[in-house]
Amino acid sequence: MISDAIETTQCQRKDPVDLFHSGHFVKICAPMVRYSKLAFRTLVRKYNCDLCYTPMIIAADFVRSVKARDSEFTTSKGDRPLIVQFAANEAQVLSDAARIVCPFADGIDLNCGCPQRWAMAEGYGACLINKPELVQDMVRHVRNQVENPRFSVSIKIRIHDDLKRTVDLCRKAEATGVSWITVHGRNVEERHQPVHYDAIKIIKQNLSIPIVANGDVKTLKDAENIHHMTGTDGKNSAYFGYYFSKFARKWTF
Ligand SMILES: Cc1cc2nc3c(=O)[nH]c(=O)nc-3n(C[C@H](O)[C@H](O)[C@H](O)COP(=O)(O)O)c2cc1C
């Protein structure tokens, strides 16, 4: 599928970071395993979604197997800007995966937020919030090995109980050249509990790069409220257009 897409998608490249500096409210469709595939992305783009993520893809499988690539990743001409989200725990593997998708996407995102037991046991997802140096190493590798400097490298995190650790993680990621950080404002144990928007606000105040607030966005109004609650300026911040996917709500991580 990737090879079929080469000619049709290469010319459509967009810089997703420009969206955050456009001065407009940026509507983003969150990564969702089994949902945010090409058909779903095509649908939400018709409803003015600005930026779409693929579901989380295991980078090691993606690099190793053509079959995994063909089943996990499809795209099309209008499917831009597109961020491919990976689960990874090794810098070289993540950067190999990033180099494979680079011609067909606008950036990659490292999942540091999945709290599922199997993922944490493999060293993927939310356990990475406790390994800032590994996150830095992974980001740095992608930055160094993907030739296009406009290809974005972002991370999606959950918060610590001790917010200082989250701010420290974010600062380290920022120093390594991460393009933006999405903050799902819950800790690893929390599922449907209220989102800690105050924590997102503090993170935003301590960082210069765009911060995307995530959690409990079910309507556009919710997104606007969160925008005010987190005190961000609307120019370099944005919110998941998760309201696009309220029909897909089967479980939450
Ligand atoms: C069905 C489903 C699949 C999800 N898959 C992913 C995923 O692949 N990667 C990821 O980072 N988050 C994933 N999430 C989490 C969402 O991206 C988002 O962080 C979460 O839904 C926000 O919390 P909320 O549901 O309370 O709004 C998924 C959520 C749902 C409901």
Attribute tags:
binds flavin mononucleotide, 253 residues, 39% helix, FMN, tRNA-dihydrouridine(20a/20b) synthase [NAD(P)+]-like, flavoprotein, alpha/beta, oxidoreductase, eight-stranded parallel β-barrel
How would you characterize this protein structure?
Belongs to the Dus family. Dus4 subfamily. One of its GO terms (molecular function) is tRNA-dihydrouridine20a synthase activity. Keywords: Flavoprotein, FMN, Oxidoreductase, tRNA processing. Its EC number is 1.3.1.90. The chain is of the alpha/beta class. The chain contains eleven helices and nine strands. An eight-stranded parallel beta barrel has the order 1-2-4-5-6-7-8-9, surrounded by six helices. α3 (38-46) links the parallel β1 (27-29) and β2. α6 (91-101) packs parallel to α8, α8 (132-145) packs parallel to α9 and α9 packs across α10 (197-206). The chain is globular and about 45 Å long. Mean pLDDT is 86; it is low at 3-11 and 233-253. Flavin mononucleotide binds next to loops.
